[in-house]
Amino acid sequence: MSHFTSEDEALLQSMLRQLLQSVKEKITGAPSVECAEEILLHLEETDENFHNYEFVKYLRRYINNTVGSVIEEETEKCTSAQNQGEVSGYDTLVQHVTKKTRESKEYREMMHALKNVMMVVVESLINKFEEDRMHNKELDSKTKKERQSGYYTDNCSDSDSSFNQSYTFMSQEQLQLLVERLDPIQPKEVRQEAVQTLCFAPPSDILNSESWPNLRKHLTMSLSDPDATFSEKILRFYAKTFSSSPFNMTREVYTSLAKHLELYFLSGEYSLRISAGLDVSNTDINRLLKKVRLLNEYQKEAPSSWIRHPEKYMEEVVESTLSLLSVKHESNHAVSPDFLSPVYFLALLDIKAVWFKKWTHAYYSRTVVLRLLEKKYKSLINAAVQQCLDYFEFCKAAVNKNSRVGDFSQQHCSDKQKFSYTGSELQYVYFVHSLCLLGRLLIYKQGRNLFPVQLKNKKDSVSITDLLVLFTQLIYYSPRYPKTALTMHTDSYSPASLVMEILQVFCDQTGCAAECLYKDAVYINCLETTLIDVADILARIAAVEDGLSLLLYGENEKTAREDSPAAVHVIVQFTKKLLHDDISLLSGSEILPVVKGAFIFVCRQMYRTCEGLQMLIPYGLHESIGEAWKKTSLLSERVPTPVTAMDLTSSISLGSKNILLWEETLLDALLNFSATPKGLFLLHSTGAMNDCVNYMFSSLSKKIQVS
Q1: Which residue ranges does the record assign to the BROMI middle region domain (predicted)?
Q2: 183 located within any domain
């Protein structure tokens, strides 16, 4: 606070006096945030210069940076609602925005952080004020010299003096003494006492001191102390620092922890292997996971603040992380494939690589991350690609042998499984982490520039197209089982679901889709359970101009060959086979109508345009859909018409409901032919014109969306 003016110091002093008084009169223990709010409101009402103080401006900036986006978002929502007549009056708007802001996650986190900081700072202030007032001369003999050399300065006659260095929590001499006591060569009792002092000292004093570089070295070494209680206290100091200090200070604490872990994994002391599994209830492993978890929590929080600091600070955090994750155990100059590396522990705690998603979200940090990956840590990308290839080969081998693949995304049922992981489960967790990381990487042009990659055990390099083909193959080869309560809960971790999420994001990104998806090679013949997923991706591709062009003509219209027809021909022929029930593998399937509807929708995305319809006319798709509708219409006539909504849910069987839904799907498909003049003529030729009009009128009457 050295940049604050004397008026700011006076304001702070006034606040502290009132806060101390409130603590004595109202609170037993630490003061509350509400108490501080009351004091600030009182000062605002009584001091006309309140808003000009640098301290108040700092608080305003802090609040704006933390919950400003929430306030703006809620204000926009309310303004929009106000324009539509749903919200009226300025007071109502302010009340609503205030209420929503107070209920937000960001506000709760801000208040929690402020409360933690206040509890530490005010508790220390109370102790120092009481010591000064009581003129307590019975200080510890080890700190007497420091006190006499200026710990309490002469210009501090009483608690009404200006808020200056009189109340610095620890002097440079004390901090230097603390560094000496924490040296690993000191006796255990001395170090225990020193770490206790460290825990009660404000992190800002520690990190701003001249002794911090040496102290940082001692703390990094002490994290490996065999005394669990001792290392746990240091870890608590790290956690407190992360939650109460700015990024320019916490980055050094983070890199200290990352360096400690890197040294530990490279040391002879560490000997964990993938094949042996992992028992997380083991004390040593539990301590290791706590350290990695603290790193991961910081990884996910740091991006919200590092943009306000020099890039080199962020680069230190990024590089220390990538360096840690690149650790490999080498035995006789060869990397051991059974080594349980740091990335496995991170994957256990952050299986979907949320940390990487946050680091690459903003261009400011994405540039640094991808530059370092390209220049120094490309082995991380290679390892992720290799992990996906290994899992695919594992699944493929199991399918070829007609054996059931263990679905590790659903294996957390028994108590034993909650506290231990087999080698196969660890490999699966790392596979999911790798898949999510690669999916995020390919969204950005800088990320795609990292490809192709060369793997050690593969002669040819792996291109982006190779990787996308691998992703689509994973949909088919990954295990699928009947839906249960458990599988519904864990389906988001299945390979098929993860790949679908990635491909859907690609479809929504124009540049990414053109470079990744719009390739002839990205194609796969799939069976029943994956057809719906494939149809969804094809429909998304066909929804945009470049994607539609790919399906109709291939990558290059001029070089299209007869022996390699464009995708449209394969899709429409397959759709006709579905409509004619001409695929024996799918006969009798309960979800066959859903599969049919999904592929009809793909064709619909094409025949809604003139050029797409021109390509489909020779196949007579409109006739096939019309015939299917006529057959279904005859069946639907036997279904009793529901009089009320209750009849619809009670008297009609599930099979009858499905018939009615299938008939509507076919009518909607026929109706879409009317998007073009020639398509309208084809619709008329099916004899379903009147029924389509009735369907459209009925849907509009019910306010159901129709094309």
Answers
A1: 173-707
A2: no
